Batch of 2 targets.
Target 1
Amino acid sequence: MNKTTLDAANGLYPSLTTIVGAMVEGKANFLTIAHVGIMNHGAPQYLSIGLGRSHYTNIGIHESGVFSINVPSRELVVKTDYVGLVSGKNTDKSDVFELFQGKTGAPLIAECPVVMECRVERVVEFSTHEVFVGEIVETYADETVLSGGKIDVAKLDPLLFDMSSVKYWSLGQEVAPCWRIGKEMKRAVRGE
Amino acid sequence: MNKTTLDAANGLYPSLTTIVGAMVEGKANFLTIAHVGIMNHGAPQYLSIGLGRSHYTNIGIHESGVFSINVPSRELVVKTDYVGLVSGKNTDKSDVFELFQGKTGAPLIAECPVVMECRVERVVEFSTHEVFVGEIVETYADETVLSGGKIDVAKLDPLLFDMSSVKYWSLGQEVAPCWRIGKEMKRAVRGE
């Protein structure tokens, strides 16, 4: 076994870069979060965002019970990084983006091609972090990132985050179809 | 607002493709899972995997309290897809990969350049899914995917999963440094 041990390093990268939005003390606030999760597949659909307890945004999510997960394209990288650099505690971020209204009152970012508004379903508590599990209430997408009525990740051109390089990365090319590229092996294993 | 509504479509893609391993009824079993999550940043480090309740693997994770998260490279796409196509209920997947031993007894995949062995910290229950939150016990990586002692995602060449296209995708190029590309905007906003 030629492997090196890296203690308990988190090797679950890249992850998707999102901008989480919430109303905090009457103002729209935004925070860049790539420590996200998909809880299930189905309806209702549940997603998670892991936020350090010290973040200003947490206050607003607790107050309102709603938040948005906005998915920026590569071209939005500067604003995306900016809202991850400064805290709502001392900087008003309510005018960084053009906003639109949804069903829940959570602030939604017009410049993001994919936007999900979520209602808090539960909070999973860790010593330093709060993981907010949200049920998606409604998803909005720009026509320009759709193909056949579905989100087209190539058109979306999302920002992927990696903690080792401390960089944003782009999406590459299609590799293979899921639940198909392994079918030949399945037939071979079964002697078909 | 030119956005189309997509009901509660999950727009949190692409996500990282992993192969989850567990001992089930005395045999190593593996399952492809891209519905993963990062709960926090720090030590202990907690990750989540969302598994439908009907999966065979769940039995083994409950029995043993441990599992592995193995991150395949693009070149492992056929085997990765295969273990997501067939169930351990009727197919022995214990000899699909070369395995190695870690600290917990969870089966670890030698062909995967990054492997994390995890101990179940809690189970977050949903109606159709169980989300296993694991604390990383130890992370293993091939020297070939390291740069400066850290995992290099470009060398890793992971498989990203997207549910809309039902395809695996590759990682693209570096876009920009995190917590730096937005600094000019920060200075401008502050009038510095």
Target 2
Amino acid sequence: MRRHLLSIDDLSRDDIERILGRAESFAEVSGREIKKVPTLRGRTVINLFYEASTRTSSSFELAAKRLSADLVSVKSSGSSVDKGESLKDTVQTLSAYDPAAIVIRSPHAGAAALVARWTRASVINAGDGKHEHPTQALLDVYTLARRVGSLAGLRVWIVGDVMHSRVARSGILAFSRMGCEVTVCGPPTLIPRGIESLGCRVRTTLDELPEADVVYALRMQHERMDGSFVPSLREYAAQYQIDGRRLRPNQLLMHPGPVNRGVELAAEVIDSPQALIVEQVESGVVVRMAVLYELLAGHGAPSGVRAQPATEPQPA
Amino acid sequence: MRRHLLSIDDLSRDDIERILGRAESFAEVSGREIKKVPTLRGRTVINLFYEASTRTSSSFELAAKRLSADLVSVKSSGSSVDKGESLKDTVQTLSAYDPAAIVIRSPHAGAAALVARWTRASVINAGDGKHEHPTQALLDVYTLARRVGSLAGLRVWIVGDVMHSRVARSGILAFSRMGCEVTVCGPPTLIPRGIESLGCRVRTTLDELPEADVVYALRMQHERMDGSFVPSLREYAAQYQIDGRRLRPNQLLMHPGPVNRGVELAAEVIDSPQALIVEQVESGVVVRMAVLYELLAGHGAPSGVRAQPATEPQPA
Amino acid sequence: MRRHLLSIDDLSRDDIERILGRAESFAEVSGREIKKVPTLRGRTVINLFYEASTRTSSSFELAAKRLSADLVSVKSSGSSVDKGESLKDTVQTLSAYDPAAIVIRSPHAGAAALVARWTRASVINAGDGKHEHPTQALLDVYTLARRVGSLAGLRVWIVGDVMHSRVARSGILAFSRMGCEVTVCGPPTLIPRGIESLGCRVRTTLDELPEADVVYALRMQHERMDGSFVPSLREYAAQYQIDGRRLRPNQLLMHPGPVNRGVELAAEVIDSPQALIVEQVESGVVVRMAVLYELLAGHGAPSGVRAQPATEPQPA
């Protein structure tokens, strides 16, 4: 495994399975009253968030703390500091503290890869624009595997605004790497051209949805609901909302949260036993603990150091 | 004692006295150089604050840290996330981290009780709209008892904007449960109808104030000072301000802070030896340590579990 | 050494050298995988920041955590709470938690000294308006001493907006106390009258810059770039920017960060081996650990207690 987690594409199937196994062992820790191990004691993890995020940032924060790391949280509403130049300066400043890891969330695709070029710390992409959100995909795979066992041959439909979704992009890569057959489905205006090259089929109606084993609904972003991409919200829901009529009893339902109730999902399916939505959140902490562990303390870490351009600092 | 602390009404006099005794033992810890005990090591406490608060949130934060818990702080200015639906989603997300306790501050009366229905964690009401602020009342009782010993028969006057004060509401309940005779006093427009049913007398002038053993002045909220509830601030101060002339030498003075100097209190009484205001703040940390202890680690915790509707999750 | 660190003027050369020695020992700790010592376990450090600051606040946060203190961070954008009266109330509230130290950053000169009058905690000035920023000067001295050994007789030029710079003021004091010959240089409109009394020479052109051993460039504040103090940014850069032509190979370059690339520094000098800018940031954590150590745990702490007016609380 490499030194950073920037994209699901960096991970082999073996890498993913090692992370899942590690997460499983941390799930055992999280079930104890003392949910803490000393693994990263005295090491520093920096949360650098240029977008508001309760879910992902608190999940990484808890993961770091349950590994006994010291966490420093740097948040920005992005007004003045999210430009390339400033990001570099911020990262170089924070790197001077010799952190073990920097967890970066940015509105700009590619930001995490840039950060990785500027620091000796391990960099974890916690979402970079519309590009990727690899820990989300890992926790999705973990959650699903916990429910069904092997993922090989499972048919996964990812439904909604695929165009703007880093969750979709990382999900396609992760599910297909684990042997699933992935289909993306949404209005033609919200399916990016060439998405098939990631290893998925494209559908623009839910007609074939009954074939799916897993329905993964994407969050509709509020700023996309105003008619520039979909004729109307009502129209969108009429054609693509997953409701009790469309979701078959043998299908599982996933969603990255937070859910827009009544938009991409109808209320009746959210709380149904088929929904894995709460389990996905629960998985967040243990999978992020596993990622931190594998990058910072795992056996593969020293030998799997990612090649760096010669002009840049090398890990000690 | 129940699983949550939502209202003083949930507490028997025995419950309150057990909390005070526990706070006393934590006061001994807080006097040490190492102000820390390992009681809640590896357990998670979430501060969920939908209103700005330096005092209460930092007090709970320190209480949790001095019990060695891991604290996660989620703050919101309330613009987008304080609606019922979103609160539920947020609480369900945070609950997936399996926190031992959620401390909730909300501008909406009843918010803490809602949170308690959505989580397996112990919920502590850190102020819900105009409803209650039970840990404030507990620290008030603790502070007073430390100074005078038994509270039985003490005459407590709560003076000011009773209408909008969660502090008044929790205070009336707590002081009367401890055997005090409580009087509320303020302009008729700022006394809610039927307040007597909580177990207090009502006065609209300070004429009988000399009978009080304790004068508890409430903070005048800035947004209420503009004339819709009181004719003018000068007029209010003329009739209800506690100053050196009105406060007798044998009376004690309390205030929840922060004080509006020159409004509800005159400068000369704030720093007098009769004032317990600084002691109230000091008590905040140890009383909140005691509440966390009783809910999460106390002997009464398992047996006193609050009954939950059958459809909701039960504590393990 | 006194109980507070408010100004470099409070420190003797011996004090500074003791801090540098202590920082050196913490640099050894920071080089370990477990970057943590138990020195301040169970003690509380409060970061009270009335100005936005990533660099200084995260540096103090890490310093406190690596000493095992509990850190509470109180931040304010300054809109409502930076007036004298409110600052006093805030400090008295926070002091009730019996913190070992309060680290204060304020836009108002003299704020740290006021805080020191209101609390029994040790107060560390993390920047008060245009007045001082003593930990910056200490880390500058530390960084330079690490590179060159003794500072005696070194010629240090501080270049730029001296008028508005607390870094310049603390730097002049610290470098001259260590035996340097300090020159300040900038446009006449940005040199305060009487600055020589701090122990420096004044120049308004870079003509004699070649004599300098160290060039310390100040950050040009964006709000000063609009023409009220300098005719134009281009004009400023033409006359005062440190670039590859002006910086001689035997000169060292320092800057407090963050750098305005292309304004006070040209890109080619920022990343040159002569620049100590990254080392300055690195030094921040260990020097702040050393300051916390000396004030809170050093042998000199009890005897060197700063005299307080008789009406104010005394340390236990």
